[in-house]
User: What shape does this take?
Amino acid sequence: MEAVLPAKWAPLAAGVLAVVLIVVVALILRKVAHRLITQVVRRASSGTGGGLAGRLRGRQTVQPEGLDAVAAERRRQRAETIGSVLRPLASILILGTAGLTVLDRLSIPIAPLLTSIGIVGVAIGFGAQELVKDFIAGMFMLLEDQYGVGDVIDAGAAVGTVEAVTLRITRLRDADGRVWYVRNGTITRVGNESQGWSRATVDVPVAYTADVPAVRELLQRVAEEIWEDSAFRDIVIVEEPQVWGIEQISDTAVVFRISAKTIPSHQAEVARELRLRVKAALDREAITIAG
Amino acid sequence: MEAVLPAKWAPLAAGVLAVVLIVVVALILRKVAHRLITQVVRRASSGTGGGLAGRLRGRQTVQPEGLDAVAAERRRQRAETIGSVLRPLASILILGTAGLTVLDRLSIPIAPLLTSIGIVGVAIGFGAQELVKDFIAGMFMLLEDQYGVGDVIDAGAAVGTVEAVTLRITRLRDADGRVWYVRNGTITRVGNESQGWSRATVDVPVAYTADVPAVRELLQRVAEEIWEDSAFRDIVIVEEPQVWGIEQISDTAVVFRISAKTIPSHQAEVARELRLRVKAALDREAITIAG
Amino acid sequence: MEAVLPAKWAPLAAGVLAVVLIVVVALILRKVAHRLITQVVRRASSGTGGGLAGRLRGRQTVQPEGLDAVAAERRRQRAETIGSVLRPLASILILGTAGLTVLDRLSIPIAPLLTSIGIVGVAIGFGAQELVKDFIAGMFMLLEDQYGVGDVIDAGAAVGTVEAVTLRITRLRDADGRVWYVRNGTITRVGNESQGWSRATVDVPVAYTADVPAVRELLQRVAEEIWEDSAFRDIVIVEEPQVWGIEQISDTAVVFRISAKTIPSHQAEVARELRLRVKAALDREAITIAG
Amino acid sequence: MEAVLPAKWAPLAAGVLAVVLIVVVALILRKVAHRLITQVVRRASSGTGGGLAGRLRGRQTVQPEGLDAVAAERRRQRAETIGSVLRPLASILILGTAGLTVLDRLSIPIAPLLTSIGIVGVAIGFGAQELVKDFIAGMFMLLEDQYGVGDVIDAGAAVGTVEAVTLRITRLRDADGRVWYVRNGTITRVGNESQGWSRATVDVPVAYTADVPAVRELLQRVAEEIWEDSAFRDIVIVEEPQVWGIEQISDTAVVFRISAKTIPSHQAEVARELRLRVKAALDREAITIAG
Amino acid sequence: MEAVLPAKWAPLAAGVLAVVLIVVVALILRKVAHRLITQVVRRASSGTGGGLAGRLRGRQTVQPEGLDAVAAERRRQRAETIGSVLRPLASILILGTAGLTVLDRLSIPIAPLLTSIGIVGVAIGFGAQELVKDFIAGMFMLLEDQYGVGDVIDAGAAVGTVEAVTLRITRLRDADGRVWYVRNGTITRVGNESQGWSRATVDVPVAYTADVPAVRELLQRVAEEIWEDSAFRDIVIVEEPQVWGIEQISDTAVVFRISAKTIPSHQAEVARELRLRVKAALDREAITIAG
Amino acid sequence: MEAVLPAKWAPLAAGVLAVVLIVVVALILRKVAHRLITQVVRRASSGTGGGLAGRLRGRQTVQPEGLDAVAAERRRQRAETIGSVLRPLASILILGTAGLTVLDRLSIPIAPLLTSIGIVGVAIGFGAQELVKDFIAGMFMLLEDQYGVGDVIDAGAAVGTVEAVTLRITRLRDADGRVWYVRNGTITRVGNESQGWSRATVDVPVAYTADVPAVRELLQRVAEEIWEDSAFRDIVIVEEPQVWGIEQISDTAVVFRISAKTIPSHQAEVARELRLRVKAALDREAITIAG
Amino acid sequence: MEAVLPAKWAPLAAGVLAVVLIVVVALILRKVAHRLITQVVRRASSGTGGGLAGRLRGRQTVQPEGLDAVAAERRRQRAETIGSVLRPLASILILGTAGLTVLDRLSIPIAPLLTSIGIVGVAIGFGAQELVKDFIAGMFMLLEDQYGVGDVIDAGAAVGTVEAVTLRITRLRDADGRVWYVRNGTITRVGNESQGWSRATVDVPVAYTADVPAVRELLQRVAEEIWEDSAFRDIVIVEEPQVWGIEQISDTAVVFRISAKTIPSHQAEVARELRLRVKAALDREAITIAG
Assistant: This one.
């Protein structure tokens, strides 16, 4: 090069060359970073490996067969959602660095630019904490697969069926039809009612004068009947309901408790059925409910 | 240029040239930035593409036909509102940088200026966190289309009909006519009652001595009657109301629950109608309400 | 100049010249800044343009005629209040910068000064966050015209009639005559009861044994009577009162609700009148109130 | 000077001269600053000018005559209290800067000193935030004249009569004789019961069976009697008491409300007198109170 | 010196001299600082001068004679406690600066040292905020003499008799014998029950049917009797007890209130005595207490 | 080397050499660090040594024999979990430093890179605080062995059986089958119900008229009977149950309390059995329960 | 040295020498620091001197004889616990500084290393605040000897017997057998029930119709009897129990209170015994308890 160009052009040529080089390297790095992100995220959310994701999730839910396709799709979506945030971040980091390096190489002063960016950056940075918090919380929720669309969850601020999960918010619909938008960063604990099983608990207050063993036996019979009922056994109830005995001797009644394990999210239905049957049985035997 | 001017003017001429150049570049950059913002915001809030906006919103509400024009207008307003904040921000960033670069190029010391700005900036910066938080929260609320003018929402601090949404605050009018100004940053979760459907829930406490199957049947008849009533069916009630059975055996009554899915925000009206009809039916059959 | 003075005086002369120049420029800049602030603030709070203010306020309240003068005066005061804070801020910024530049130009070391200011500044800065927060909140409240002197507002910490609004605090007088000073920054949401209309809501508990249709009809008659009363219709009540039906079947009563839209802040008065008339009507018909 | 001393002493002489100059300038500046503070504070707290103080206070209380001397004394004390904090602050700032400049001029390295001060300063700075917050809050409370010694205030943490106001704390004595020290920075809102007027509110629950118009008339008579009583009219009661009608139809009673405007802090006394007279009147007419 | 030593030793000698000088100056400064602290603290806590301490305390409690020795001892202890924290702080500041200056003078690089200290310092600094907060709060509490050993205080977290006050914590013993350690920084307001006087308040609920004037007279007699009792008058009760009249017409009773000013911390004892006498008096007159 | 290569290649060769050296050293350091972490963590969580771990845990639970294998496995898992977080952290620290050193050695400007990283880093750093807090809390929970899979804990946000512990979250399943994800950093205190023993407490309210010594004796007999029952003694109950006497003389009953120490997590079962037996015994003796 | 080695080796030799010197000095300093820490901590926690520890603890508990050995052991453990944290901290500080100085001396660039450490450090620093807070709180708790193993304390989050105290957490076991881990930094106040004495308080509600002097006398007799009982006097009760008179005239009863000072942590036992005896005495005299 030194031979071809006159000496006075040499620095300029070198500068152009450097700039081109920087840009090319940056573009390649960006490509590599995107690919890396895609792979890592996919592996992390696939959960088959025993890697970070497995450790983050730390669970081996026994999932009914036939759900594999659903789970695979949910995995794919999770990977996509997380990647869609990490990729632009990587781009900004790499291209920003490249841009500043080019300006620096061309001897254009970057201090004023940095000052401007810095002031605006800090000003926004403080206010954006919550935003970043939401995104980080969302990313880990997805990686740990805490809940998915269709699950019934208790997010503290609202309880309902998940309709959508993004990195920033979770959208729920509660029992009254209200649609809730909850920021992920404000969810400190989540209760998922759609995993494994639920429990229906029915409290039956009877008068002090009632005959305890008789009531107990009667409740036991109700529990057995519902378990023998083919509309419930193994369909919504997964274990024979149990009579837990006297839960409380309050100042107005002796309270018995019946408990039944059900498939997820059907506990209310089973509890109502149990109450109906208990009431009918108590009426038949003329046992007075507390009063 | 070197030929035309005497040597001693050369630096000055170069300086003027540089300043002009900087100003021109800054103005062009600003124009480009504004356009970019307009496009990005419009696309983000149009929601037709599967881009960031779609991912942010993450929903495919089934909207009744005829609402397209309304939705389009709402989209346009959203884009306008967001753009009106981002554009001045870009201007300040670009023109500020240009200004500092010009001063620097003219060898005017900018350190004292930066110091002054810095001290005032930090002083205000701390206090302005809340402001930035409000704006960021407002921007995402708009992008995610959490609610719009006319929706009935529960914003935590207040419940009412949205009258206006700006980037900083949401204005509501509650049922008592009170107008609420709620800062967007203080809204951690929003419940929107105007999306899809609402549910009317009516609890009917009856005395312990009541005949459970009879009450149940009676409530079922009331549910069917209102569903057959052409003033309600498919007008405000969207599904046949259901009798959910015994919700609670409290220490004073056996509580039955009826539930009806209604069009959004008409649940109170339907619930009142149901109560009227249930009371009338119970009176007819001489069934005692709890007491 | 070079001709007039001996060479050794030249730097001094140049220094004096520079200082004079800096001071003059600073004074001019300050003048310009003040004027700019006056104009921007006036326009922002006038609300006629569709500019930032309109977007910030985002509302088109239908205001009764005759209030134009009041509104104009309120606007003028708002502009004055905001300007009175922004102007000294601009002065400090511009004159501070000029002072530091002069010292720097005169080769007086400013590092120790900056250190002193910095340490005191940071020490105070942390503690002054709340102050700045109050001022920013106050400025936006004024710009958005959330409330003015004479409005009845619910500021969370206190409910009452606004007696004064400054940038830092809002002064209220509650119903018991207590004067409240509320820092603007602690007001996260404001409920203004003096805009548009208010609603009087009266709950009437009647015994379970009462005849529902009869009660309903009776309440309807009371509603009509008050609407026909020339002392109320269109004077304090702006719409015919409505009987909303059974609001609740509680464990002690069947609760009916009557609702009436009134002019702002007269809901309590109307509610009391309604209660008086309802009680009289029930007594006439010998319908037992819950008990 | 150059003539008198040998050349080698020149720098030393210049140094001494510079140090003397710095010290003199600093002392003069300090004097000026103190005077300025005294004037500004006095003017700010005098409230006669329409300046910052007026804007901060934003009120024109109609004060009874004869209080001018008291108010003037209170103003003087306020000015003194604020000045006693601002003056040492200005001294530290000016003398500290002068000290550092002298050290710097004498080529004594100040970096280690600044490091030590910085580390200790930051360590303390974080913890002292609350202290600065208290002082700033106290300063504005005094400037805005929110309350003074002798006022009965509700400071949130405690309610009582103000016994002392300093910049850091407010000392109250509550009705039980407890002395409360409340940090000014923890007071987010203050309710002052000693400004203008107070309201005595008396609720009278009567049985459902009571004759509403008769009760109302009776209460009206009681209100008139107390207003005619020369021991109350214009002495403690400032307006004729009003019967507001039925405040609530609760599930146990029909509640009437009487309201009377009193001079500040005498509402409890008036309310007790009203209750005595109402009870006596009801007994005379044999109207049953709720039960 | 230049004459005695060979030229090559000169810098070394100068270095040693400088180090010795620095150490000597530092030790003198430390001595001076300690003395200054002792004096300032003693004066501040003596409260005789009208200086900062007086302004901080802002009170002129009328203290019974004979307490002078106790108060003087308490003052001395306070001064000692505060000084014991400020003195080591001054030592660290002065000796640390001296150490760094010596290292710097000896051309030993101090940057790595500062880096290490800085990192550890910041790490601890954040966590130590609370500690500094406690110490600052404790120092002001002592300076303002908010409470001392033996006072009964309400510190929010606990109520009891002060057993010890250090800069970091206050130790209380509550009525149940529990010993409480409360961090001074967590005390936002303190209620001291041992200053001046306390008030005993006794509420007497009587049946609706009771004769109000008769009850009032009877309570008045009880109040006079206890005031005439030499075991109470001026011993524990400092003013004649007052009958305040009807405090409330609740839904179950008419509530009368008697109030008595007592010496500090004896209100419970007086209230119990009053209740005993009231009960006895009511029994004598056969007036039914509410029920 | 100087001999083999022409002089102009020397710097390049030195550079390459330096880079290789840096990389090699970094890789070795990383290896060493990983090994060190593995060892330290294993030792820390083994708890056999009296080192930091012992001091952190500070407990010597008497564990039933046969649990050694379980405990060893739990220890191994804990060590693995902690190591899996510390190792990548060490890698990033060492390799990042190496990378920057290489760039610096090759005279590639790293300032722009640092700027970019810094801005992104701070932006994320603020938001990631919570994340780091969770990880630190998790690490110490594991080191201190506060709970493990299978324990029943009260984590404040939720109570249930631990299903998984990761560094960021703890997964519980509550009694109703709900699965809770609780962030470790939000757990300020943990109550573990599965260590050592639990206590069943049964309150028995009896009527005022009951004969206290008789009731006491009867309860004592019930306590003895259950202790003699081979299904409970030493199986679930670990000490003879005690009758604690009258716990409260409330306004409706005299409340007796029986207490029984059980094996962990079986207190509810024992309490129910006790209630059944007490009720039966009271019925036999015809002692009335409160009412 | 200059004579032995060729000139070109001199700098290297000097470097090696410097490094050796630095390492040696660092090791000596570390040794000294460790010893200093051991001494200071031991003295601080021994509490015999009147130094910082005495001032921090600020108490002179009268401890029963025989506890000296226990106290000495507790002191030794405290010193050990605190030292085990301070020693590694000192090591890190001294060795870290030495390491950086060595690198600097060898002209190895340390800026990249500092950058890496700084970024990781700040990232972790924010999250580790809570950790440092816990440790500082724990250290002061130990120094002030607020509680020890075996004490019954109220830590806010949990109440129970202390089982272990480490610098980060306190382990308690509550009455139900639950083991609580409470982070020291979250404990803002501690109530220790095991120091000096406890008080048993028994409230006895008697009917309105009861004869007050008779009840009082009867309670007095019960108090005397238990004091005469050799199983209680001076064994668990340390002062003759007192009858405090009528604590409250509530709307359902006249409540008497008996109070007894007991040895620490035996108040519940004494209260139960008192209730038993009071109930028996009331039964004997046929005085009706409230109802």
Chain A touches chain B through 58 residues (CB under 8 Å). Residues 48-66 of chain A have pLDDT under 50 and may be disordered.
